[in-house]
Amino acid sequence: MRLVGKWSSCDASLKLSAHPVSSAVSWSGRSVACEMPRSAHRQHASHDGSGSDQDKNHVHAWLFRQSLVGSGGVKIKAMSSSDQSPASTPASGTAEPPPPPGRPTAVSSQVLDMGAQMVQALKPVRNMKQHACSFALYSHDLRRQLEVHHFVSRLNQDVLQCAVYDSDEPSARLIGVEYIVSDAIFEGLPAEEQRLWHSHAYEVKAGLATDVGVPEQLQRLEMAGLAKTYGKMWLTWQVDRGDALPLGAPALMVSPQAAEPGRARDELVRARDEKYGVDSSAGGLKAARVEMEEPEWINPNADYWRLHGKGFAVDVVPAEMRRHAPFP
To answer: 58-110, pLDDT tens digit by residue?
Structure first.
């Protein structure tokens, strides 16, 4: 089966419908279906450019391509979030992504930055009160995994927003964003929207998520609350692919889970633990959190790949611009 999804910035809706599809890759002018890659080899998907005017009549339409688990994989196109098979993802701290192109920062710019910092409130930035570290997996290719650093601001007790970086160094790259909501808010979302979210219960209980440098006794209450939340994370800069700039479409990310192939890789976890003095082993955070209360249930629409063996990816396609606003 192929799930066809379309996101339009005009009508602000995500529409999913199911269609039978063979194992071959096809291009209909609206969506591309591909197998979730299990090998390092990919092939280009062909297309014939077909598609009706109605299909194209969306401003900057995002196409959600549903990936099917299989023995092979495909390379869709340059603007796809699943484009190209990356080299083996290095463990955190073992390799540096290439620096972005550009000139060294001028002295005049440094002076302006210092002056602006003195007179500007920077309220949204200063509302970031926590630094949490964990791991994220690409929805369309669970073998690709990243250590991620969330700088968290709290909109209220039920909604958090996080700027996601690839490290906590001064030169860290802003690689994405995650929104986190309580289970009560998540249950009120439409089913098709819930498919884009992931749960945090296993990530917390397994000791993968931690507030860096904060003693477990102090962060325990926060982590217990986080275990009952759901997150929606978009990665805009694929540093593991070696991108020197944010290229292509954003990638939907998911959280580590206890089931294969969604387990966090041992070398990634070990490198993070050694760097920050964290013990996420069975005798460390796992043991400390074993009695932590778990959610009564985890909505099956979250962590969509676990039940359906499918992950979401995003393509960007040309679209006709609307000449009239869709809203009054």
So the answer is: 323 333 444 333 323 333 334 456 555 444 444 444 457 788 999 999 999 99
H helices of 175-317, in order, are 183-187, 191-194, 201-205, 216-226, 266-276, 285-288, 304-308
User: How far is it, in rounded angstroms, from Cα 211 to Cα 1?
Assistant: 41
| pLDDT given at position 83 | 56
Classify residue 101 by its DSSP letter.
S
Determine the distance from the C-alpha atom of residue 249 to the mean position of all C-alpha atoms in its chain, rounded to a whole number.
Answer: 12
Helices (H), 48-106: 53-56
By the 8 A CB rule, do 301 and 191 touch? Answer: yes
Q: How far apart are CA 190 and CA 319, in angstroms?
A: 26
Q: Which residues contact 171 (CB under 8 A, 6 or more apart)?
A: none
Q: Alpha-carbon distance 71 to 25, whole Å?
A: 13
Cα dihedral across residues 82, 87, 91, 93: positive or negative: negative
Residue keyed to tokens 């955070």:
285
Arithmetic mean of pLDDT, 29-46: 36
Please tell me which residue, 178 or 98, carries the higher pLDDT value.
178
Distance of CA 110 to the CA centre of its chain: 32
Sign, Cα dihedral of 210, 215, 217, 218 = negative
Instruction: Name which residue leads in pLDDT, 245 or 18.
Output: 245
Structure tokens at 38: 């299990």
Q: What's the confidence (pLDDT) of residue 179?
A: 98
Q: pLDDT value at position 97?
A: 74
Section 121-142 average pLDDT:
95
> Facing residues of 65 across strands?
4, 313
Other C-beta atoms lying within 10 Å of the C-beta of residue 109 = 11
Phi/psi at 172 (5° precision): -60, 145
pLDDT on residue 320: 87
How far is the C-alpha of 219 from the C-alpha of 199, rounded, in Å? 19
Buried b (16+ CB within 10 A) or exposed e, 157-191: eeebbbbbbbbeeeeebebbbbebbbbeebeebee
Using CA atoms, how far apart are residues 50 and 47, in angstroms rounded to an integer?
Answer: 8
